[in-house]
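Write out a record, focusing on structure:
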Amino acid sequence: MEKLAIDPKAVDLAALVDRGALLHGHLGPFLVAGIRMGLLALELLRSPGYFGIRVESGTGFQTPLSCLTDGIQIGSGCTVGKGNLFVFNDRVPRGRFFTDDGGAVEITLRPEALDDFRRGEIHAESRRTMERPIEELFAWTVLSLPSTR
């Protein structure tokens, strides 16, 4: 069986968000941000997702912050069931992504975006999060680059 791959530059974000809402149960800005966070990590780490990558989510288990983790699953292909998604109860909207070839990046939702999510109407903020420039949503630090593939 051929392994799936995610191309973050070619993905249909609207379709991915629709699939995410089916998994998650509803549309929300934290879900959309998590999807975009996962895609950004794949792009920065030059990873096809699903395998050879793992993520540590700092959201904890309380909604709506934990909804970011469901989005990370959709955007990165990492899942609890495969053992490459770990959730820590830091209560921080952050993901730390690591690849088997030594790449690592930390991505954090910007405080301004977090405030907007909490104040805005859920569907309007979801749409806005899909279109918002990535630099307005996240701050990130590349901790190490993957070895050459």
